[in-house]
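Key result, reporting period 2: structure in, sequence out.
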Protein backbone atom coordinates (compact mmCIF):
# COMPACT_ATOMS: atom_id res chain seq x y z
CA UNK A 1 0.00 0.00 0.00
CA UNK A 2 1.29 3.44 -0.88
CA UNK A 3 -0.10 6.95 -0.64
CA UNK A 4 -1.77 8.66 -3.61
CA UNK A 5 0.49 11.52 -4.76
CA UNK A 6 -2.58 13.77 -5.19
CA UNK A 7 -4.79 13.15 -2.14
CA UNK A 8 -2.55 11.03 0.12
CA UNK A 9 -5.14 8.25 0.59
CA UNK A 10 -3.80 4.68 0.80
CA UNK A 11 -3.84 3.00 -2.64
CA UNK A 12 -3.01 -0.62 -3.48
CA UNK A 13 0.05 -0.78 -5.77
CA UNK A 14 -1.92 -2.72 -8.41
CA UNK A 15 -4.33 0.21 -8.94
CA UNK A 16 -3.79 2.38 -12.01
CA UNK A 17 -6.02 5.16 -10.66
CA UNK A 18 -6.71 6.34 -7.12
CA UNK A 19 -10.11 4.98 -6.02
CA UNK A 20 -10.68 8.14 -3.93
CA UNK A 21 -9.74 11.00 -6.29
CA UNK A 22 -9.20 9.25 -9.67
CA UNK A 23 -5.62 10.57 -10.02
CA UNK A 24 -3.41 8.35 -12.21
CA UNK A 25 -0.97 6.34 -10.09
CA UNK A 26 1.46 5.70 -12.93
CA UNK A 27 2.92 8.04 -15.50
CA UNK A 28 2.76 5.47 -18.29
CA UNK A 29 0.42 2.53 -18.91
CA UNK A 30 1.50 -0.13 -21.42
CA UNK A 31 -0.23 -3.12 -22.94
CA UNK A 32 0.68 -5.50 -25.77
CA UNK A 33 -1.72 -6.97 -28.31
CA UNK A 34 -1.20 -10.23 -30.23
CA UNK A 35 -1.42 -10.43 -34.01
CA UNK A 36 -4.31 -12.17 -35.72
CA UNK A 37 -3.53 -15.93 -35.49
CA UNK A 38 -4.38 -16.64 -39.15
CA UNK A 39 -2.24 -13.90 -40.73
CA UNK A 40 1.09 -15.66 -41.20
CA UNK A 41 3.34 -12.65 -41.88
CA UNK A 42 2.34 -11.02 -38.59
CA UNK A 43 3.16 -13.92 -36.26
CA UNK A 44 6.46 -12.42 -35.00
CA UNK A 45 4.90 -9.00 -34.41
CA UNK A 46 2.97 -7.37 -31.60
CA UNK A 47 1.22 -4.04 -31.14
CA UNK A 48 2.35 -2.09 -28.09
CA UNK A 49 0.08 0.70 -26.87
CA UNK A 50 1.46 3.17 -24.30
CA UNK A 51 -0.62 5.88 -22.65
CA UNK A 52 1.47 8.74 -21.27
CA UNK A 53 -0.26 10.45 -18.36
CA UNK A 54 2.43 12.88 -17.23
CA UNK A 55 2.25 16.58 -17.84
CA UNK A 56 -0.65 18.89 -18.65
CA UNK A 57 -3.52 17.49 -20.73
CA UNK A 58 -2.28 18.89 -24.09
CA UNK A 59 0.99 16.94 -23.71
CA UNK A 60 -0.62 13.60 -22.84
CA UNK A 61 -0.75 11.10 -25.66
CA UNK A 62 -1.16 7.49 -26.70
CA UNK A 63 1.69 5.89 -28.64
CA UNK A 64 1.21 2.87 -30.89
CA UNK A 65 4.25 0.86 -31.94
CA UNK A 66 4.63 -2.29 -33.98
CA UNK A 67 7.26 -4.60 -32.48
CA UNK A 68 8.99 -7.39 -34.32
CA UNK A 69 10.51 -10.24 -32.34
CA UNK A 70 12.15 -12.05 -35.28
CA UNK A 71 15.46 -13.10 -33.77
CA UNK A 72 17.42 -12.17 -30.68
CA UNK A 73 16.45 -8.49 -30.54
CA UNK A 74 12.90 -7.22 -30.44
CA UNK A 75 12.61 -3.78 -31.97
CA UNK A 76 9.98 -1.25 -32.90
CA UNK A 77 9.41 -1.17 -36.66
CA UNK A 78 7.12 1.85 -36.66
CA UNK A 79 5.41 4.12 -34.18
CA UNK A 80 2.92 6.95 -34.08
CA UNK A 81 1.49 9.04 -31.25
CA UNK A 82 -2.10 10.27 -31.07
CA UNK A 83 -3.43 13.05 -28.90
CA UNK A 84 -6.24 12.22 -26.48
CA UNK A 85 -9.03 13.34 -28.84
CA UNK A 86 -7.72 11.25 -31.72
CA UNK A 87 -7.14 8.24 -29.43
CA UNK A 88 -10.74 8.55 -28.22
CA UNK A 89 -11.92 8.69 -31.84
CA UNK A 90 -9.94 5.48 -32.58
CA UNK A 91 -11.52 3.75 -29.57
CA UNK A 92 -15.00 4.75 -30.74
CA UNK A 93 -14.24 3.52 -34.26
CA UNK A 94 -13.17 0.08 -32.94
CA UNK A 95 -16.18 -0.29 -30.65
CA UNK A 96 -18.74 1.08 -33.12
CA UNK A 97 -17.51 -1.02 -36.06
CA UNK A 98 -17.08 -4.33 -34.19
CA UNK A 99 -19.32 -7.25 -35.15
CA UNK A 100 -21.17 -9.05 -32.34
CA UNK A 101 -19.08 -11.44 -30.26
CA UNK A 102 -18.61 -14.83 -31.93
CA UNK A 103 -20.37 -16.89 -29.27
CA UNK A 104 -23.01 -14.32 -28.59
CA UNK A 105 -26.20 -14.98 -30.54
CA UNK A 106 -27.52 -12.01 -32.44
CA UNK A 107 -30.55 -10.44 -30.90
CA UNK A 108 -33.62 -12.24 -32.25
CA UNK A 109 -36.07 -10.11 -34.15
CA UNK A 110 -38.80 -8.75 -31.91
CA UNK A 111 -41.37 -10.77 -33.87
CA UNK A 112 -39.71 -14.08 -32.70
CA UNK A 113 -40.11 -13.28 -29.00
CA UNK A 114 -42.84 -15.09 -27.15
ZN1 LIG B 1 -6.02 10.10 -4.66
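The corresponding designed sequence is given below.
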Amino acid sequence: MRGCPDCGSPVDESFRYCPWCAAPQRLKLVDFFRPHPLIEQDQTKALRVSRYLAGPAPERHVRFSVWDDAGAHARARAAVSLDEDEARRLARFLVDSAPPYRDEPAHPPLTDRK
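DSSP finds one helix and six strands in the chain. The first helix runs from residue 84 to 97. This case is discussed further under Risks and Mitigation.
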